[in-house]
Amino acid sequence: MASALGERVGETVGYTVRGDSVVSGRTRIEVVTSGVLLRRLQRDASLPGTAALLLDEFHERSVDVDLALTLAAQAQALLRPELRLVVMSATLGGALAEGAAAVLGGAPILRSEGRSFAVELTHLGEPGRNRGDLEEAVAAAVKRALGEAPGDALVFLPGAPEIRRTLPLLEGRLGGGVAVLPLYGDLLQEQQDAALAPSPPGSRRVVLATSIAESSLTIPGVRIVVDAGLSRRSAFSPSTGLSRLVTVKTSAASAEQRAGRAGRTAPGACFRLYSAASQAQREPQTAPEILSADLAPLALELAVWGAAETDLRWLDAPPAAGMAAARALLRGVGALQEGGEAPSVHGRRMASLAVHPRLAHMLLRAQQAGPGAEMLACTLAAMLEERDLLRKGQTAIVGGPGADIRLRVDALEGRLRDGAPELGGWDVDRGVAARVRTAAALLSAQLRAYADELKEDVPSQPLAADDACAVGLLLSLAYPDRIARARSGKAGGYQLASGKQAQFPRPQEEPLVAAGAWLVAADVDGDPTCPRIFSAAPLPAQAQAHPWLAPLVSTEERVFWNPSAGSAGARRLRTLGAILLAEEVLPTPTGEALVAALTSGIREHLGLAGLKESRSTRAWRARVQFLATYAPAAAAAAGVSPLPDVCDEALLASLEAWLAPFLHGVASKAQLAQVDVDAAMRSLLSPAQLRVVEDVAPTHFTAPSGSRLPIDYEQCALNGGVPVLEVRLQEMFGFTRSPDVAGVPLCLSLLSPAGREVARTSDLSSFWRSPSGYAAVRKDLRARYAKHSWPEDPLTAAPTSRRKTKGAE
Q: N or C end: fewer C-beta atoms under 10 angstroms in the chain?
């Protein structure tokens, strides 16, 4: 931008990023990162001195940019109506544009088609799913593309591993005059520069890139795009607190953006490794990061901003589960006030440090442990927000020479030379090292602002930076849930304090496995089967006894139901999170703890079958359930509140309400069988409700013959909510209408003299008159049961439960 004006950066156009700023009194346009923008909004939401705010490349939908739009829109509405807000992107179309306009209060949508050239699309179909199939398909597509179209080729692959596997395949097939260059975030700067430089005259290039080349970078000379149609995204699980990388299909917008890279300077060609039908079925836009990211930083920003997410306008609101997990983490590190969502003093300090809340908490607590611990914590925080600084040759590989973070610290501080035996021949990435040192120095400078304030806090246990476990102890402040103890009998396997299990990817090659039983894992993926540990540091041999970790140890007496013994038991447990340190058997307790154990045992192991429910109680429960589910108006007509749900699932869910008061003194399955279940269930109903059940849902029906017959309410669920009455057909002679309960006609199961069902009806009048009803039954059974009455007109016949008398028709 400055070059287009013929100026140096810092005159009309300048920039500010964390730790670096080039602006002057003449600067009218300042380019900033989303993090810098959020800091300025938090410092003064009115953005004094700013006339317009432009959010570019908005389609990438990072959490910070989504939050910046939301906060800026509220600031404009409440404080600066004259502030101009602009959202811009090359692929900001359709619903995304309309949604952004809505957040901005109905802003107009402006479209500029720009200048581009035609790109011919070729769909090659999807490769196989076996390992290596994707790379082989890409190599074949690139060779075909270079033969059919002119210019350099840009190849989109999901990640660095696929790029590294594709490189040798292409280098062996394309021959001289074609350079194959990788382009992804972990490369050395000179390698990235080589991929972005124009091709020498008479030569061609094939650039293998991740989605970084979709819009953030411009590669000159590209007229061919080969698109694998895949990208890699981070997915955070609120239930585990861990993230993992997942490979997903690119969105339709992303696919169009990729294809467009071939038509910037001349007509181009795009070869897609999937079908045209697959393109039509893809999501229109890339899913916003806010729906799958770790939301702890966002939750802290909102706390400092002073608004709940429900008070703000969002393009996509943060999911409730993610926000709940985020606030649980913030409460765990003391960032929120007790019992609320407002930030504590500690939380406000954390937010100003512009690192993840976990790392901010570590920095502030380390400051109390001495200057050596503080500087080490700054180094760790900066290192953990960068990629691995160890690399072998020109390639960065996650994990390096083992997962021990201490090796990285020693290498950074010059205690280990490149290729030293401890590093297994690995080298330090000088660019990464420089960025880590700069960021660490910046964090140290920011911490000095709180030096005097923190003297008032309770000081932490002093920590010497040269302590062998100093790195692990500091990391335990940031990741208390990832403190881990080795699992016996599982080499390289660990039990995390969060309750999850984790393991090293290659335990037989991992020095930390032999370093001790305790460690803290800083980088753990969210693999659903068993999370993998990529970086960690050891903790003292008796970690639970160390002054820094002792506050995490808790002792509690836990009462539980022992299904194998059929009784309640009690233990005294000493734990560090979910890691069991010691267990002691206690005498069976009494009181509420025992009752809670019993209800838990019934709910999880025994079910209602573990109670001795009588036949009459089940029948009564069926009557209540009939009225509650199929005839609720009966209770309303009687002037009482709705009857409770008494199905098995509802009763199990509400054991505390109706059964718990009857469980005092009960400790075993045998004693449970003696509980008065009938009285317990009836306690759910008020006296008025009990009367309604007796009055409106009678247990029996008196047939015209005088017989008192039971009504079966237990069949309601299988019979469309209709109770069933079994009655011999002759006992209903002369009865013209179907009997009902609470306005619901009974289903009459009409029986033969032998008690077998011969017909079923809820419309008795129609049954008597229908040729397929009584007439058909009479014709079928008259000869078989000759001693019983089978009149031609059942409506005028007398009901009877006996055989016909001698001489009768």
A: C
